[in-house]
Structure formats: structure tokens, C-alpha cells
From TrEMBL:
BP term (GO), one: intracellular protein transport
Organism: Kockovaella imperatae
InterPro entries to which the protein is assigned, alphabetical: Adaptor_comp_med_subunit, AP2_Mu_C_sf, AP_mu_sigma_su, Clathrin_mu, Clathrin_mu_CS, Longin-like_dom_sf, MHD
Subcellular location: Cytoplasmic vesicle, Clathrin-coated vesicle membrane
CC per GO annotation: clathrin adaptor complex; clathrin-coated vesicle membrane
Membership in a protein family: Belongs to the adaptor complexes medium subunit family.
Primary localisation category: membrane
Name of protein: Mu homology domain-containing protein
Keywords: Cytoplasmic vesicle, Membrane, Protein transport, Transport
Keyword Protein transport carried by entry: yes
Amino acid sequence: MASLVAILDVKGKSLIQRSYKDDVPPSCIERFLPLVLDMEEENVQVTPCFSDDGINYMHIRHNNLYLLALSKRNSNAAEIIFFLHRLCSVLTEYFKELEEESIRDNFVIIYELLDEMMDFGYPQTTESKILQEYITQESHKLELQARPPMAVTNAVSWRSEGIRYRKNEVFLDVVESVNLLVNASGNVIRSEILGAVKMKCYLSGMPELRLGLNDKVMFESTGRAARGKSIEMEDVKFHQCVRLARFENDRTISFIPPDGEFELMSYRLSTPVKPLVWVEASVESHRGSRVEYMVKVRGQFKRRSTANNVEIYVPVPDDADSPKFRAAAGSVVYAPEKSAFVWKIKQLGGGRDYLMRAHFGLPSVRNEELDKRAPISVKFEIPYFTVSGIQVRYLKIVEKSGYQALPWVRYITQNGDDYVLRTISDAKSSSIIAPI
């Protein structure tokens, strides 16, 4: 139970706040940032929840904003932190970007959302699709909707009744992002797979969906033999529509889906991963007057797969100029704002490798150490492929009217936010890099 919810700027000033109880004075908001700064100065880890002088502070950070909840009672901190994340996602869906300017431009609608999403300190409706049905950004629509839709008071609060489509379809995307760190010796020292099952549902009525995956725990608990590879997912998180009791019982993912687009579940795998797109670079400096690079890229995945829109960011000195490039495939551009050049390859086939060469002038003479050079980062997307081997075994759709629906399943593997390789080395001799 929260007594007060506020959104603060990066300086700790309240942009908007809503008090649900009178037991916490608004002046406590001003104490939040000084308390955080004091903890940072004392090298104390700033946790999402902490207490001071009988007041519980619970917060999350988004861009340059703090979303803060205050309570005087022994509240369920996890529930309130989750509510702040839901508030963040709802405001992002309403305004596209949640930042200080969008808060200042939409005071009225944010107050309405705070009143609907929490009542007397207890979280209520947090599904943005339902909220958008009766809290709109066009004032004339507010007069047309005299009362909230039935979904707000139904057991299924994330889906409205009476939805009709001429063509009933379900699109399911299994998207896996690979994060890894490769050291200078070429060894993978950290790797993980972050997966998400995303859906677009265009179904009439109140359909019941059942999704089956090649889940190792399910095969073990039921004593069935897995056909092919099975995977063991960690940190599984579900959309609120999933029946958790059913999943814990027999690992069946059963749910009534929201209408439209949503993320059904996310998971993590800590199994070792080899670099799908391998990049290494040799650098040769010429007495501080110029520097030359030779970069090699290789697709280390199955030959029948193709990586699309590959972008390789190779760091260069801040004052490099006069770039010259030659690439066996794709195109190369200089990005001085990122102190890097970017090698773009439209399609990289599995098992294929390419070379490119770059030449830069250096206006100032200096002797830069190799260790201070930033790592290579890579972006890519491989369709029809999952690095973990996850598979959708079935997707059943049951609705009382008995209509037939078309399920579509797609697999995508892409780079994560932290796919970096420190595979930059000094050229062993000047002969390995031919002049451009």
C-alpha cells in the first residue's frame, strides 16, 4: 500500500504527485534525493527500497526521471516496485517517450491515470489497452464514455468483451538477444541469452490459448521423452494473463490473451554461447602520423542461415581524419561522433567471411596505448534461427463459437545491448596491411 506516488526530475524536484493517504507529508519528497546522494558519498549501495525516519522510500529510475512511492506502513515493497514499472510502461504507451517534457505537457491525463491505476493506495487497473478505452488524449471522447468498460471489473481485466474480427489470426515471435564479452585472447568470458515470446492476437470473443514449448522441466515432470533438444529456462516472467497455478502444476502456458500486441513471457539462459558474428581487427600505427586497420568478419552459425543488417563498430582515435575504406562486401562510413567507423553488411551468410581495410590520418603526433582502446561492438539479426534451440511445440486456440484461427510462428536471434569483442591487436608486420 502506497501513501503517495510522485514523478521527480533528475534534481529531485517533484514534477507531479498524487497523495492517496494523509499519513505521509509531501515534504518527504524533498528528502529523497539528498538521502540517495548521502548513500552514494558513503559508498553505500542505493537499493530500490530504503527507510528513513519512519518513511519507506520505493523508487525506480527511467531516463532522467525518478518514479517514487512513499509509505509509512509495512507495505509490500515488491508489489509497489512492480506498480511503478507498470506506471512507467503505461505512460510510455500514452506519450511514446516518458521524459520531463512529456510529463509537463500532460498533467491532466496523468492525474486521471494515477486515479484509475491506484485507489486509496492499492493498485487497480494497470493494463494500458483497457485504460486507453476510457482515458483518452482527445477531450471530446471523454464525454462519450460515461463509464469505464466492463473489463475493469471483470476477472479478465486485460481484455474487453465483444471483440470481433473477420479473419482470426495469431502471430507469435520468439526473439532471443545474445550478450557476450570476448577478451583480447579471443576467449568468451561472459555470455547469456535473453529471450522473449511476443504476440499479436487478432481473435474474436474470449479465446483460450495453450502454448507448449520444448521445456526440459515439463518433460522431466511428466516422464515423457523429449523429441530433439529441450531447454531449461531461468528467470521466467509472464504477462498477467497467464494462469500461474496451471504452469506450476504441469508447465502448460494457458491464457486468455489481451487484444493486439503484447509480450507473453521473457526468460534467460546462462548457457555458454560462442560468438555468432566473429570480428577481429589488426591495427598498424605509423609514427603517430597515420593509422591503418584490417578487419575480418565471419558468420559462425549454420550455413543455411543468414545474418541481416550487420553493423560493426570499430573504434578509432578521437582526432582521426581523412578516412579511406576498401571492403570486400557492404559499405563503410566514418562516425566521428562515436569515434568509430561502421562497416555495414546487408547479408552475412553462415560460414562466410569478409575483409575490409581502413586508413586514417592523425593530425597530432602521439603514442597511444592499445589497452585504452574501446572494444568492437556488433549489431545483427538472424531470422528463422534461435541460439538456444527453443521450439514452439504447439499453439492451441479454443473459443466457444468454434471458429478456426491461423497461428503464425517466427524465430529471430539478434545482438543484445552488450555484444562486444576486445579482439583488436597490433599488426605484427607492416606487410599484412596492404595500402589503400
